[in-house]
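Thread amino acids onto this structure.
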């Protein structure tokens, strides 16, 4: 059989409220052209993020009642810890309320109160990761391979770190670099995977310079499945074994359980270094909670423990990767400039190419996001100069790519809804030249894309 079907059936449904183009034009104007300011009831297909938006399984829902809410020593923590260690055998597992809390704690350890002059390289830092480092004064550098910056280029592991550039950076400035981070899959770079060979290469460099390697692991299972599909020697290896090998090269990880753990909330920091773990737990108690719950309730930890077993199921992963590839292929055949190959969690559109009449600092990705919402009630997110244009020194400069990300929540939308997304682009294509650029009228000092206000250029 060629057709890959959803390996689940639906037991509970949430109605979607239908809206018209005219209503949506007004709603987005009232939201100051920022899709984060929309009410979710005014969205038909919500592709803003795949974070915390998964449908939980019957096993996860029934595990809620097992949650033990004891302040200290809850069995829910030990089930959660065992599930993490089954895949990622780190010595210390420290629960946090979500991924950015784990990043914040790790940043506080490496910055030690004065981050200035320090550098943390990554393939591509995602928004909150970058903001955490920059807020501590650390220079967050992106060292993804060149192929990763060309949306149209077919290349199997576009998330790989450029090991030559990393080597040169370490040769010149090893003393300034407290750790190396690698993000799997590379979210800001199109949800593209990192190969096992690249992880092995990173380990060798980290050994040479005696630096710890941390994996920003939000979409680890999608990354592992890509390795199984694309890397020589892994075809016959189970995803679980691939996951274990990936993490065997690292000294620690930060995790958002809101992605590849099917949880609506949660995260953790895991690591081997006893001294750092002690510092992390002390900070955890100050900011999140006692080390056997961190920022989580017992029931959240139960859901994560089960989600971690379900996420490495290969029928699920086959459906997951194929459902995104399907939309990518159909958009590609319409002539929509999609990132190739398809990423693991989202469809990425090259907005610079689709809207060549809009300059980067008039935010083609944001302009496309607004047009797509008006067209079909689809909410996506810009990953380009609106998200990354403002620099730590206050200047503004175009991002390397102007992308629109349509992130697919896990186990949530059906094939007819996928076809509807494609149809919206079919319509949008016809009057794309009429879409106008955007001007920011108000923005905060950092992480502006979440709360900034905008207006179309043409209303000048
Ligand atoms: N690392 C990566 C690679 C992420 O994509 C995210 C979140 C985080 C860390 C932070 O985790 O949300 O649990 O605090 N990304 C979401 C997104 C929000 O839409 O891509 P968190």
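Threaded sequence (460 positions):
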């Amino acid at each position: 059989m060629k057709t890959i079907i959803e390996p689940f059936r639906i037991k509970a449904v949430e109605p979607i409220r239908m809206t018209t183009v005219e209503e949506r034009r007004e709603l987005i104007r009232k939201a100051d052209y920022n899709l984060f300011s929309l009410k979710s009831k005014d969205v038909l297909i919500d592709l803003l993020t795949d974070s915390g938006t998964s449908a939980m399984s019957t096993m996860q829902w029934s595990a809620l009642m097992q949650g033990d809410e004891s302040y200290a020593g809850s069995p829910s923590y030990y089930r959660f810890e065992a599930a993490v260690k089954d895949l990622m055998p780190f010595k210390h597992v420290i629960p946090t309320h979500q991924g950015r809390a784990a990043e914040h704690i790790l940043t506080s350890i490496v910055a030690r109160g004065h981050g200035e002059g320090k550098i943390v390289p990554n393939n591509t830092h995602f928004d909150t990761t970058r903001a955490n480092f920059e807020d501590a004064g650390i220079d967050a550098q992106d060292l993804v391979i060149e192929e990763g910056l060309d949306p149209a280029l077919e290349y199997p592991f576009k998330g790989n770190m450029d090991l030559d550039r990393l080597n040169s950076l370490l040769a010149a400035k090893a003393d300034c670099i407290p750790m190396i981070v690698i993000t799997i899959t590379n979210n800001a770079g199109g949800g593209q995977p990192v190969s096992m060979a690249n992880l092995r290469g990173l380990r060798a460099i980290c050994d040479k310079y005696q630096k710890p390697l941390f994996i920003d692991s939000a979409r680890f299972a999608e990354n592992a499945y890509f390795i199984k599909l694309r890397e020589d020697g892994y075809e016959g290896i189970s995803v679980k074994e691939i996951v274990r090998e990936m993490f065997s090269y690292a000294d620690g990880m930060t995790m958002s359980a809101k992605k590849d753990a099917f949880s609506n909330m949660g995260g953790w920091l895991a690591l081997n270094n006893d001294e750092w773990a002690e510092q992390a737990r002390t900070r955890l108690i100050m900011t999140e909670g006692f080390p056997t719950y961190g920022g989580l309730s017992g029931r959240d930890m139960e859901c994560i423990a089960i989600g971690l077993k379900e996420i490495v199921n290969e029928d699920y992963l086959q459906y997951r990767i194929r459902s995104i590839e399907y939309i990518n292929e159909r958009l590609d055949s319409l002539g929509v400039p999609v990132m190739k190959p398809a990423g693991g969690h989202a469809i990425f559109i090259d907005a610079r190419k689709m809207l060549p009449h809009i300059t980067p600092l008039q935010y083609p990705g944001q302009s496309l996001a607004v047009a797509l919402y008006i067209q079909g009630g689809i909410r996506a997110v810009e990953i380009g100069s609106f998200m990354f244009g403002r620099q730590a020194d206050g200047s503004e400069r175009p991002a390397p790519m102007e992308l629109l990300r349509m992130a697919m929540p896990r186990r949530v939308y059906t094939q007819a809804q996928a076809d509807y997304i494609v149809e919206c682009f079919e319509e949008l294509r016809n009057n794309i030249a009429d879409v106008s650029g955007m001007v920011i009228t108000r923005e905060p000092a950092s992480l502006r894309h979440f709360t900034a206000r905008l207006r179309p250029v043409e209303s000048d």
